[in-house]
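Data availability excerpt. The first of two example chains:
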Amino acid sequence: MQYLKEHISRLYHSNRPFIIFSIIFGLIWILFLLTGRHIIEIFHSRGYFNYLGYAVKSPEHYFDKANFIAARLTIIVSYAFILWHLIWLKKRISLFWVILLFLFTILWLYFSTPAFRIYSYHGFYRIGIAYRIFAGAGVPPTDFMFAGEPMASPWGYPWLIAMLMKIFDVSPYWLAVWVNAIALIIASIFVYRISSLLTKNHRANILSVILAIFAISCFSIQEYYKIGLLFGVPLESRVSATISKFTNLAGHPLGLAFYCLFLYNTIKVFNYPANWKSYFGLIFSISVGGFLYMPFLPAVLGISAFLVLLLLFLMKFAYIQKQYRTVLLFSGSVFFAFLLILPYLLTTIRSGSVEKAVTFFSFYYLGIHLLVILLNIFPVIFVLFFVARKFIIAQKTIPLLIVAISLFTSLGMYSFVHFNGFIEYKFLALFVLTAGIFGGIAFDLFIDKNKLCMITAFILLLSMNWPILYNMKREHYMYNSHPLPYFEKGKYIYSTDSQANEMYDWIRANTGINDVFVDTDYVLPVLTQRQLYIAVDLPDIQSPPGFEYKVADFVVARHGHSNQEYEQRWSVFNSIYQSNKISSFLDFDNYVNKAQSVFIVIRPTNSGVEIDRDFFELVFSSSGEKYFLYKYLTNK
């Protein structure tokens, strides 16, 4: 008991400034959440906002504004407080406080912006896959946007969400939030550990975590857009702050976490050859990480191959100590991990065979990519090459070599390859992560040079907080600009339209997982866990919320379905909702499996459609007759 008291006392005294700071801010937030809305309602009722010159809006609008301002102030002050202790006071601070800042940043966005949490950028698409698996469609699931066809997309992350849904009575959107939070913690811890294998300087390790995860660029999406206009080229801005990738409803956060685990175990394998746990960790990180987020797998395999070849070369000419046994075991572990994940990879390749336009060694895209890299890590480049390069080059160690290989491999994969949609940015994310590790060490050395360097480092690091602050503003207001037409209850998401819910409830209760629906709204797979004959774009918008792409382009360009097949289904779809030509309905007979049924959904937006009773039977109408469901009569 005495030891426990002494231990707690030591923890308190070593963390007292941060504990007091957290308590103060915590109490302010509690007071704001309890009384802020009431105070704003009083101000609003008495017309104070008119006196201040603001347009008259609802109290909820002003509370949302105050909530957003309070969150940004909390992040800025907390980040400055951490930097002050690291740089000016030169105090040792716990990684816990840094992670706490990271978690506040993403969790505030999730809690305050339910529309963003649900839509995300591809939220309906990812959760649509998860619901298919959860409902019993098996793996790999069929494509819910193009019924009957295999899923031409990695389904590892949605599978994880579906399994968690079977355990917890929680919406998959909330489950994704907690998965992202755990991934953020794991990534932060292993970035710290990787940095600590390069240098034992605690401040450098903390700065590595800050730069790799939280703040590495001075430019936000807004500045990238303006600079892109200046040069007349599109610039990739999605990794201006790595932490922004932890606010997406996708496998990206888990991919980053497992990539950090892969790097850490690779270093441990060559630093401590007798540690068999590292080999297990290596196999686990590659196989599970590749399953949950496949896009990072090429980088992992490329780094592994480059590392083995370089080590064999260096050992042959006696530049480093010979470790042929370790190289063999490492190669075997990577190969075994690849074999474990190969069946999964074959299902995605066989189900997709997606033809992406790939451009290699294009000077046009190389120039764009190099400009993005320069903008993204300019402060790190400045400090690394002009201050700390001699020190880092002098550290001829295996850990440094491995992180450097990670840096240059991901840099090469991003720089010299271009995919449709600029999806090579995924390799840019890995480059930024490892650049941040080196950047933390470089900034630590820069700070110790003189007082001017200390001031410069403080200003630079503080300004690098801007991208995530701007991203928060963009995501918060972009998605909160309209009322959210959905709400969550237990494992499911419902419409705020009660009559629509009547239809969705009927579909879940009276139809099978393999039944097919023809509908003009893309949300049916999420709200009913059923599949669409063909998903179509909503009218007059560039892309449906929760997809961030035109569905028509996605089905063909990314899912690999033929234009002929797409046009055939679109013709049937169009004949039902526009031309009402009975002859087109006969195409269903060549499509519908006799074990399936096809239903036609009639919404208020297409209530004028005339349904031919020779082909369709009315099976459901909502209480207010807003929604109707017709079943196609097959030639049984």
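And the second chain:
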Amino acid sequence: MPRNNDRSFPVVEPDAPVARGAHRQAVRRLVEGGWDASDADWLADLLLKVLPACGTTDGQLSDTTEAHVLLLALTKRMYAEGDRDAALLLMLAALTGCVWIPRLVVPREGAGQPSDIWSLSDSRWAEVVDEMRRHGADFERVLRAGWPKHIISEWSKDAPFGRCERATTFMRLLLQTDAIDLSRVVDVDEMRVSGRDGRWWPAGFSLGPGGQQWMDGTAWLDPRSFRTWVWQLGALPLQVMAKLLPAEPTETIVPLVTAAAQAATTRFANSEYGCQLECFEGHTQEWVPTLRTFARVMRPYFEELDRRVVAKGREVDPLLRSAWMLLFRMAWDSEAADCPPEVRKRVLDAATEDVSRARSLFGSITVDAADDADRFLQHLPHIERCCKLLAFHGGLWRCIKPLLLAFRSLRTPALARDLRHWEEFADDPPPTPWNAIPGLLSTMFHAYAAREQRSDPDLEQLRARMATYLLERLTDRWSQKEREAAAANGQVRTDDDMTEPVPEWRYCMIRAVVDLRVNPDGKGHRALHWSSAHDPHPRVREAAKSASQSLRHQRGLPEGTSPRRAMMSAMWWLKQAHMLGLGIQPDPDGAQRTRAKELTRTKEVERDNKPAGSNP
């Protein structure tokens, strides 16, 4: 049959342009890698747009670009077990250099030159993410099941324990480009459960059956754990999570904030001790910038709790109140000078009120009141938190005064017979849990005295305030008219007429004032002179007479005497008052031993190592 010579031949010219030839070749490679034709079409466009050209033109893929496309195409079958969204996540990680499948390399010009490892610049991250999300990529679903195995395998090579640079980069990418909604990845319900438990796990790792894990059993890089995101990224996930707080129900706001705070301290507290002490100022100068960052990122959490506390007024739930105080410390410890005065006052007033409430319990307890002891133990952690807050943000006297009032109101022993609040001898244990109150007095003083001395080296203000407090309790409760009438008819005062009705307490308070080595406003000796003439107990009058002369000629601390030792010596007298007031005779040898031990715990070098005070 003759051929039609008029028909043209469909030959391919060697250099003729072929429109979108590179695109079609890329689609073919993607389909070979297991991608559907519809996905292959838009992915080919995306990859050719963001991959380095390496000689590729519109009509033809270069060998290097073809290799890149093929490597990326194979993520679906080789590393994602056929899961489209997981494959897109892996492709995103590979493009940005956060995982190798293997590495994407670009040859340098010139024969024999080594290749460069290539990754997409961060200025183009959002472009890739937007395209993937526009075509339905559901990265939240993938991460709720955990990272793809290949990603975990790769990252574990970099940093089996600690932060991983590639993990940090990729997780930051996911948040900064809105590739994921973190609240749909993190197990928020588990956060609420963890926050309700309230346990503060240290920032350590261990080896478990499934590999590296946190001390609480959570897998090291589990994307469902908020701790993982904060550990790797620091402030960013905390900022993201803070946006959820206004919509959080009242019954779960405290557990959620507590869980976020737990995760935050894992990253930002420079030690477990620092976290437990609830001091976020920065124990060393190197940590100050870090904890300032921490403070600023925690402020929205505090502000949300503060808003709710103010709205509730006096009907605030105790758990909310306690969490509010903790978040205040986190938000303002490292930048205390910048805290708004009205905010500080509101929190300090609340802490003072909560410590003062303990007195209503102490005034009614008996030695065998087990229920009272249980109730006190339930409140003790919050009392301790209040005391730390008061000492740090209000000064030591703001903390010590309500503790002294609580100590005075105790109607059951809180000390061993040798005046110890700590465990030491089996045959003379301190009564628990009441020993926590004198224990707090000692602990708070030792913990914050150095901070107080930055502005007042001799603790003169603290000693003067304590002396004033003690002297005010030596007077009577009469009005001026009653005093004038008593003077006219010779009426004498009884113990019940005195502000402090127990003579043992008044006697020991006088001795404590002498050991404080300060005459408040130059007038303290007048209160002692009045006591020497009008106190109903002769031994108190005698002690007041001697103390009056001592204070009148007081010229401050003796050379080489630490102001801390003066304070501890005064508190030792109040411990005696507590025991004597309850009719318990302290053990003389043991009490002197306890005093000596406490004076050596002042943590301050003495020039002459002289004891504070002298006996009148």
